[in-house]
TrEMBL record:
PANTHER family from the UniProt entry: DYNACTIN SUBUNIT P25 (PTHR13061), GAMMA CARBONIC ANHYDRASE-LIKE 1, MITOCHONDRIAL-RELATED (PTHR13061:SF29)
Source taxonomy: Bacteria, Pseudomonadati, Bacteroidota, Flavobacteriia, Flavobacteriales
Keywords: Transferase
Pfam families hit by this protein: Hexapep (PF00132)
The keyword GTP-binding belongs to this UniProt entry's keyword annotation: no
Annotated source species: Asprobacillus argus
Protein name stated in the entry: Transferase hexapeptide repeat family protein
Gene3D superfamilies hit by this protein: Hexapeptide repeat proteins
UniProt KW Transferase keyword: yes
Length: 198
């Protein structure tokens, strides 16, 4: 669902995909190859929200801010299921873990990884390449080259997903039983632990 608000109409590049069960409102600019999942709410009613190229905002995420603020999710930012970004700027190629909350005027440095369920307080400045966990969130170490390579590969899957959705996602009536010839699905990505298991 795409809504205008006070004359602002969202801008969504044709290569991106906004699920019909997401809500994008007002002064929102979505770049190329972005994926917005079902249940996501991107509310540009009180300020501008920019999603640069290759950003994904997954299911049940909220992106919003206090009046008069504008925020940017930089290129290849990856916002995990259920996360809340409230008035924070997210750096390039950052991973925000599932159910994380990042509060107003926080700045997340490029290539950082914010662990699932972290709480990043307002006005927190996270240096680039930081691994961040906890409530309140704390930097525990620097993100390694291997970790950022793993993150980047996962984000690339989401950058392919808009095309896959445009090509094949259709509303259907469900089947009543599993077909005998139903194909399996390829394992195209591993968890970080599996990736580096010896």
């Amino acid at each position: 669902m795409i809504y205008s608000f006070q004359g602002y109409i969202p801008v969504v590049h044709e290569s991106s995909f906004v699920h019909p069960l997401a809500a994008v409102t007002g002064n929102v600019i979505i770049g190329k190859y972005c994926y917005i999942g079902p249940g996501a709410a991107i509310r540009g009613d009180w300020g501008q929200i920019i999603l640069e190229d290759g950003v994904n905002v997954q299911e049940n995420c909220t992106v919003h801010m206090f009046p008069g603020k504008s925020i940017t999710l930089k290129e290849s930012a990856h916002i995990g299921h259920g996360a809340i970004i409230h008035g924070a700027n997210i750096g390039r190629n950052v991973l925000v873990g599932m159910n994380t909350v990042i509060m107003d005027d926080a700045e997340i440095g490029d290539e950082s990884i914010i662990g699932a369920m972290a709480f990043v307080k307002a006005e927190t400045k996270i240096p680039k390449r930081s691994l961040v966990v906890g409530n309140p969130a704390k930097v525990i170490k620097e993100v390694s080259d291997e970790m950022i390579a793993w993150k980047t590969k996962g984000t690339q899957l989401y950058q392919q997903l808009p095309k896959d959705c445009h090509d094949s996602l259709r509303e259907v009536v469900p089947l009543r039983e599993v077909p005998k010839d139903r194909p399996g699905q390829e394992a195209v990505y591993k968890t970080l632990r599996e990736q580096f298991k010896k």
